[in-house]
Amino acid sequence: MISRKALLVIFLLVLVSPVFGVVLADIVGYHEPLDVAAERLGLEDITEELNWTPLIDYTVPGLPDVVGYIVAGFIGVGIVLALGLGLSRLAFSK
Amino acid sequence: MHIPDGFLDPLTAGVTYVLTILYGAYALYGSKWKKNPDKLNLAAVLAAGIFAVQMLNWPIPGGTSLHFVGGALAGILLGPWVGFVSMFLVLLVQCLVFHDGGITALGANVLNMAIVDVLVGYALYKVFPQRFKVVGAFLGGWLGITLAGLLCGVELGVSSQLPYGLSVTVPIMGLWHAVLGVIEGFITAGVVAYISKKAPYLLE
To answer: How far apart are CA B152 and CA B169, in angstroms?
Structure first.
């Protein structure tokens, strides 16, 4: 049984996530903690060169960053839930 | 803490992949977690919740940020095997769908956040007596992130991609995550305290 309350909380978390992941991040010039350390160490991030997904960094092509972040969040939550529940059903069926 | 592509050399990436696959194979096939249906559904919902919470980057003036990782909480609520599965789902989707964490570093990222963080959180919570469980959850959250950060520093330090060795990477990663880990500890303890009042059966 999946708690509706838990799903509602997750829904609300995704809705407010751009406030932190996009808006405030832009204001303070956000970087992942590891990226900051890596910069000090002189490492090169080749994520852009090796990219395989249109949803890189929780963006959606053609959508503003804030809206794209929310859509990406729902896509991610949906896939994680589907995989988890699928695994659960697989385990029960055996 | 998500290591991107280009940071680990092939040897380090390979070793961390092998360790992760061995642990994952036991978690999936060797342990008895599949016999508990409630834990499996909880794992799916918790994974979705952790994915959503990790999107809430709390920016810190100066150009960095922190977000809740959730490995210790997964270990406390689900145990070391189902907790691993839950965190693995989060990291897999983050990597493959959003390129958050490199594909070459997926083994290392899973090792740090889905194995070490989960195990440390689980172990510390378990060793504390019932009336001090919230303290155990705090220490599990804090130490889980700190040790995961230290291991991340080791992985970066032994990688020949880096200009510096362990003496530089381990203190930087360890100290940084020891500081950030305090917040992780408070959130983990807060969630455990809330669950122990509202849904204590989830902690049994």
So the answer is: 9
Q: For residue A58, which of B64, B86, B101, B60 has the smallest C-alpha distance?
A: B101
Please list the rounded mean pLDDT of every run of 10 residues in chain B (204 residues). 87 97 90 73 94 85 72 96 95 96 94 97 95 96 95 91 81 87 95 91 82
User: What is the CATH code of the structural domain delimited by B10-203?
Assistant: 1.10.1760.20
Q: Residue A37 and residue B172: Cβ atoms within 8 Å?
A: yes
How many CB atoms neighbour CB B31 within 10 A? Answer: 15
Sign for the CA dihedral angle at A33, A39, B120, A82 comes to positive
> Among partner residues A40, A56, A83, which is closest to B89 by beta-carbon distance?
A83
Interface residue A91 vs chain B (CB under 8 A): yes
Q: Which 3 state secondary structure label does DSSP give B60?
A: strand
Residue of A nearest to B177 (CA): A33
Provide ipTM, 2 decimals. 0.90
CA of A62 vs chain B CAs: smallest distance (Å): 16
Domain ranges, ordered by start, for chain B:
10-203
Confidence check: pLDDT of A1 > 70 = no
Confidence (pTM): 0.91
